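Bench log. Compound arrived from synthesis this morning; before running ITC I wanted a structural hypothesis for how zinc ion sits in the protein. Inputs:
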Amino acid sequence: MKVFNTLTRRKEEFVPLEPGKVKMYVCGPTVYNFIHIGNARPMIVFDTVRRYFEYKGYDVNYVSNFTDVDDKIIKKAIEEGVSAQEISQRYIAECKKDMEGMNVKPATKHPLATEEICGMVEMIADLIEKGYAYEKNGTVYFRTRRFKDYGKLSHKNLDDLRSGGRSLLVTGEDEKEDPLDFVLWKPKKEGEPAWESPWCEGRPGWHIECSVMSKKYLGEQIDIHAGGEDLVFPHHENEIAQSEAANGKEFARYWMHNAFLNIDNRKMSKSLGNFRTVREISEQYDLQVLRFFMLSAHYRSPLNFSADLMEASANGLERIVNAVDNLKHLMGAAQTEAMNEAENATFTQTEEFVKEFEAAMDDDFNTADAIAAIFDLVKFANTTASAESSKEYLKKLFDLIVKLGDVLGLILDKEEELLDADIEKLIEERQAARKAKDFARADAIRDELLAKGIILKDTREGVQWKKA
Ligand code: AMP
Ligand code: ZN
């Protein structure tokens, strides 16, 4: 299995730190508003990465934080006249609703920055003790030049950074030893949330959060650290500096970054007014369509959001859903149960599509090609399944499409209403059970139907049923 590693700028064979296990950390959103469709891209992409590892039999420990202390949250709280906590809790709840709509699995753990301040104070103190950080008037800075590998992720050279960083000196941060140094802890300003620390009452810088939460929930070394490409520098570069300086070992083996989502071929931003939230999209489309759209491109390619591409995605997804529904329908009406020899032989041909699917996903999670493999399988199912097929053959095709779809997080086997034929069949079974005085079985069937919203009424003309 090959993974493109930003650190080496190459596709590398994935070798886990511990056999059969993947430890993965994905930088989560800052929660001051509904998430936008750009934020949705890493959520969907890395959820799919997780699902594929699980499909391959790995046990995945997936940690993704919520940044719930930040200038933007504080600003919003002041605007609304409420606490910062009220803002972050509201938008964490809304974000979780969107994630559910996009079928993004909850992480093994979703830590909140504000609940991990103690660990951050400890790591900062440790960095000071090791000479990697220093305090000036209550602010603690990381001594960037002390960390020899600084720049290894973003492939930046310290001297280029230095000339680019000159403007920092002008902005009043001249108490730093070096313009390249970045903040680990800062003093509180009036009205801001703050915590006690050995340096001053204040709050942590953004980068230290992820170093601490990753260490606490996954350990000092992890397999994969991921996020959008804008996080490579400075966020992830700084995380590496903090974690490796504090722990004395390599932080993450593989660094994965998704490319950006643009909108109508332009950068999505508040100032351009072309900002779309996931919630807005959900009013127009099933979020499964958004998920399908995100996976229709490789995660390292820029992706453009447009009405046309969403329509194309809706059509593509429908093709798969229709095939699955058709198989379900045929299964309900199938005349024979077991597969015959010929069907057996036909079914073995599907191995080709599974190989095609896995080869695509093994090649740095090429979901676009994986979708193409599912389309090939769907075409095969449409041409080989018929009213003459056995139930077993149809079920095997059905299960396979649903299984591959599930790796991409597509919900294809919706809990559907029972087909009329299935209901009639169960009623007949119930009548037979009653005749045989097997009332327990008869009642069980009635309850099963009731659970699915079907109400039975025993009349003189026989059993009637209606939907609740
Ligand atoms: P933020 O809340 O800005 O920290 O972003 C949360 C996650 O969304 C990060 O991994 C960002 O890199 C990612 N992200 C933000 N905007 C976009 C975008 N337009 N396209 C893709 N990823 C994005
Ligand atoms: Zn982070």
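What the model suggests: Confidence is low (pLDDT under 50) at residues 167-171. DSSP finds 17 helices and 15 strands in the chain.
ITC booked for Thursday regardless.
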